[in-house]
Amino acid sequence: MRAVRFQRTGGPEVLEVVEVADPQPGPGEVLIRHAAIGVNFIDTYHRSGLYPLPLPSGLGSEGAGEVVAVGEGVTRFKVGDMAAYAGGAPGAYAELSVRKADRVVRVPAGIDASTAAAALLKGMTSEFLLRRCYPVQAGQTILVHAAAGGVGQMMVQWAKSLGAVVIGTVGSEDKAQRARELGCDHVILYREQDVAEEVRRITDGTGVPVAYDSVGRDTFEGTLASLGRRGMFVSFGNASGPAPAFEPARLQRAGSLFFTRPTLFDYVATTEELDASASALFEVLASRVVKVEVGQTFALAEAAAAHQALESRATIGATLLLP
């Protein structure tokens, strides 16, 4: 099969397509032939070395397709099932992938492989952020950075379905228009406007109870200053670089704030949690409460171009590789 590998960390140019032996499932595993592969920011962190991996390495943690073989003891799936996964050992950028059956979810009828690959990681991330990390309540005003990005788009729609008032930040007027279409009640151009000043204006000076920040370094100070008393800063990405170190006493001085740096995989650690999160996602997708936009697709051999597009922040919605 063809697969993307990298021998050293660096820019997108380190990615190369090679031919390797087809993998075979062992006990408790399934073999999936990919129809679509999700491209996510965490993949760029692995490639650059921000999140180090043993080298040489495969890349990618999200895919969907048909189960073509099952290992000994697997009863959760059978050959021919449509399945998807998000997480596990990097290696999704390939035509085939072996995955532990208890970390794979069944894709229900009516949802195609491209939708599943585009939505699973971002959608389960949205689910745990909005429903479990900080349970958003109807009537609350929340701040969502990168509202036109892959996770941001899903979070805006899901938050609106929960009855929240959503303030979204974006980097361009084109993305601002997209954020409004998704349901943002207020949109801030963070490169041109003072985020905290705008949030305070919108909230009559009180600030927001929760702010979701996937941008990192560039938005850190604005996010901190946007929170109301006992508000929660949810830092879950580094699109502009890692958030800076800070003195914990700043949280006290700013109103007894909370700060968390969560990861999806601590919220879907068990098979039961994984199934529940995926089920909640597939439910809002099936009901069209949340729609996932595949903004751009690339061939497997164009993985480097996909990373260039993602890191330039020129993408809108989800990015897929199609083997």
UniProtKB/TrEMBL annotation:
GO molecular function, one term: zinc ion binding
Organism lineage string: Bacteria, Pseudomonadati, Pseudomonadota, Alphaproteobacteria, Caulobacterales
Residues in Enoyl reductase (ER) domain copies: 10-321
CDD domains: QOR2
NCBIfam families: PRK10754.1 (NF008024)
Organism: Phenylobacterium deserti
Keywords: NADP, Oxidoreductase
Domain of life, per lineage: Bacteria
Name assigned to this protein: Quinone oxidoreductase
GO cellular component assignments: cytosol
SUPFAM superfamilies: GroES-like, NAD(P)-binding Rossmann-fold domains
